[in-house]
Amino acid sequence: MKKLLFPLSITVLLGMAIPLSACNAEKTQQQSVSQQEISDRTVQLDKCGLQYEAPQQWIAYEQTNMLPITNTTTEGDIYAQVQYNYVTDKEMEALSTLSNETSVQQLLHPFGEILVFKQNKLESEAVQKEFALYQKQQKVASQKDYVYYMLSEYTGDISSLQGQDLQAYQTLSESMETLKQTITVYPFDETIVAEAIDQIRRTISFVSTTLEGEPIDSSIFANADITVVNFWASYCYPNINETATLQQLKTELEQKYDNVQLIQVVIDTPQPEAEQIAKQAKQESNADFISIMTDETLGNWIVQNLEGLPTTILVNNQAQVIGEQIQGIQSLENYMNMIENALAEQE
């Protein structure tokens, strides 16, 4: 089977900005902070059992120049990372129009972060790499096998900050010591994070266009109980090409099932030569099934989840992958058996 080759330039943010408002979820009795102590300055992260107060010094910058980024995963040496960054007005504008060629890290000026990891990962490369970015690495809490470290006094280049920006950055950097005094931890369930990661991986999302230039997005999955999604690339052509079989499958589905549809993803698009080859393959087989081009979100999903081409998956009307991936070229009979088995399981 031909291994995936990805001529894609993809920039991925670590996570999403966390709100600085109170979280009203009820805590367990083992928590060290009572409900009465939660204020509108409380940051509460249930996925890693972390709570602290946002310093008053942040208020002037929270809505304009601060960008908090958080990432939680059960698959790396660092379980949770909360990074606080200062961003100038000009850099914030650049972030709002981010392109694939833009390096996000060049627009961020970290002034502190909190790491959560298992004690036995302290000497891991990932943890030590983060430690090296700051002069101070302070252990602030622990529970079960997890330890919590606060990192401050960033050692990276901030020479681009001048005047008021530099003054603001220094204020925010110094405020991490105030934040440290308010940190508390409480029990959390890491299996919830693992389940959330699995659900994200099994969810297909995109906003793109077809080979013919028509707009299309992942809401198409709501049009059928099951969507057959075939992943292919123009560089497979002509040696690996099941366009004719896919067209037969589309015809068979239209005759037998009105609740099953077929789409193809051409993973090395958008790119003029790739688009031309994909269109040629369809013309040779008189194929009229929907072929879509990738966007950044779908490209990321492909990189993280596919091992070779062609690969076919089934997706339900909630845009979630069901069953296992089918790798390699398949016969019409194999495709129909796969679909019939999936329909039977839904009954």
Notes on the protein architecture:
There is one protein chain. The protein is of the alpha+beta class and 347 residues long. It is 28% helix and 27% strand. Strands 4-5-6-8-7 form a 5-stranded antiparallel beta sheet, sandwiched between helices. A 5-stranded mixed beta sheet has the order 14-13-12-16-17. A 3-stranded antiparallel beta sheet has the order 2-3-9, with no helix packed on it.
Give me some keywords for this one.
single chain, 347 residues, five-stranded antiparallel beta sheet, five-stranded mixed beta sheet, 8 helices
Rg result: 25 Å
Shape: elongated
Percent helix among the residues? 25-40%
User: Which structural category do the helix and sheet elements fall into?
Assistant: alpha+beta
Strand order of the largest sheet: 4-5-6-8-7
If you average the pLDDT, what whole number results?
A: 87
Unreliable residue stretches? 1-37
Q: Number of DSSP strands?
A: 17
Order of helices and strands: EEEEEHEHEEHEHEEEHEHEHEEEH
How large is the share of residues in beta strands?
A: 25-35%
Largest sheet: 5 strands, antiparallel
Give the termini distance in whole angstroms.
Answer: 34 Å
Number of helical runs? 8
How do the helices and strands line up, and which of them pair or pack?
Elements: E1 2-3, E2 42-45, E3 50-53, E4 66-72, E5 80-86, H1 89-96, E6 109-118, H2 125-131, E7 134-143, E8 146-154, H3 163-180, E9 184-185, H4 190-201, E10 207-209, E11 215-217, E12 226-232, H5 243-256, E13 260-266, H6 272-284, E14 290-293, H7 296-305, E15 308-309, E16 311-316, E17 321-327, H8 332-346
Parallel strand pairs: 12-13, 13-14
Antiparallel strand pairs: 1-15, 2-3, 3-9, 4-5, 5-6, 6-8, 7-8, 10-11, 12-16, 16-17
